[in-house]
Amino acid sequence: MGGGFMGPKGGGGVGYPGKLTRSVLVSCVLGAMGGLIFGYDIGISGGVTSMPTFLEKFFPSVYRKEESDKSTNQYCKFNSQILTLFTSSLYLAALASSLVASYATRRFGRRISMLVGGLVFMVGAILNASAFNIFMLIFGRILLGFGVGFSSQSVPIYVSEMAPYKHRGALNNVFQLSITIGILIANIVNYFTAKIEGGWGWRVSLGGAAVPAIFISIVAWILPNTPNSMIEKGELQQARDMLRRIRGVSDGEIEAEYNDLVAASEASKQVQHPWKNLRLREYRPQLVMSVLIPALQQLTGINVVMFYAPVLFQSLGFGNNASLFSAVITGLINVIATFVAVFGTDKWGRRKLFIEGGIQMFIFQVAVAILIALKFGTSGKVTELPEWYSILVVMCICIYVSAFAWSWGPLGWLVPSEIFPLEIRSAAQSITVSVNMFFTFGVAEVFLSMLCGLKYGLFIFFSAFVAIMTVFIYFFLPETKGIPIEEMRVVWKSHWYWKRFIPNHDQQVNANSV
What we know:
Layout: H1 22-32, H2 35-48, H3 52-58, H4 60-68, H5 81-108, H6 110-129, H7 134-162, H8 168-193, H9 201-207, H10 210-222, H11 227-232, H12 236-247, H13 255-269, H14 274-277, H15 284-298, H16 302-307, H17 309-315, H18 320-348, H19 350-376, H20 387-405, H21 408-418, H22 422-454, H23 457-476, H24 489-493
Helix pairs in contact: 1-7, 1-8, 2-7, 2-8, 3-4, 5-6, 5-7, 5-22, 6-7, 6-9, 6-10, 7-8, 7-21, 7-22, 8-9, 8-18, 8-21, 15-21, 15-22, 17-18, 18-19, 18-20, 19-20, 19-23
């Protein structure tokens, strides 16, 4: 049986008039730049953990192991629980903060959550740059995590609410594009700071995180609130004026969308406990997607490649500079490929990109596993890695990264942010962020140990999840292209499986429903 909802051409439900105005374009693009702080951290952490002076100061056991035994098992040379704690502590903090951000986003608006995220991230960056012991370093990482949690919770909601429904996919994917740009910038910074004489380049790399944090804080301060947020705070006339400005149409033409936003807000006010309401049967499809999509996004193994890229390449026999340069290459491919999603999501739809990306990732993860197995076997020891072989490994990883960049990367954030009704939107987005950060934390915490234990089989492990999630998308994710965000219920009503959970007619949300 077919998996997706196939509605009328151009989508289903009610269509609202609206243009891609300069006002909405600037607001959405600047707002989506909140992903820079997340991306910069992903890129920077792996780079500094491959710098000898950084390891010597904070992780001396890893440094001594690498320096004293050049013939050590390549799979296990960076295996250290303290080293993984440095990387993964951020994501545990982001998980916790995203739950707090749910209340702040709903109570004070999307902008305030973005502003808090930027400011806290900036403080964490300053602490990391000036760290003189491991406790100060990890405390700074925790503050960075709080910043990431707030921004990841609020930015996708902000963009989804501001964007016209016909362009929502492209504009929301700018969030993932900004993550990839942040990763690329971090990789470039690492490449050059590693060459600084005196061994203090890692401080520049970590302190550089304050730059995007300041930028995001300024942007959040000057951006307008979304009409949805204004209505929630009782600013009805301001919301109407804002909606007319960002849609670029007359007052009469926004009437239908404005009335739907007000009705959604009124329904939202009846919900005293949105977290409790998430358990209602009618929200089962959204709840399943808000958990499985971010979980499966991390089980692709992508963040293993991105924030451990220099360490991974170094483990594969690349030198320090070569490993950092290879990470720059994968970061550049990541940025370029994300443009496919920006321009193609609203043209080809979410499902096609999800499925094609999944198939491509599976093929090249298996290819990487085979290449590593042929050269390293199970011993992890290799006397010489030919240049052509190294290039082949990097090419396979780049093709894998490109597939993620136009599928599960941006769509893993876009789809959950656009499927929730207003009354549970902030709570549900917090679940999405929390699950994402929980699995990011888990993968980061166990990766080096799993690499040591599973060896090349680690890539087979992740490829198995890629196969599972591609089948899941085919059968259970309806197409959301071209559906206004407040009319998204139509896709669940029309889906072969999820329609059994949706009432036959729209009902007022009741917190006491069963």
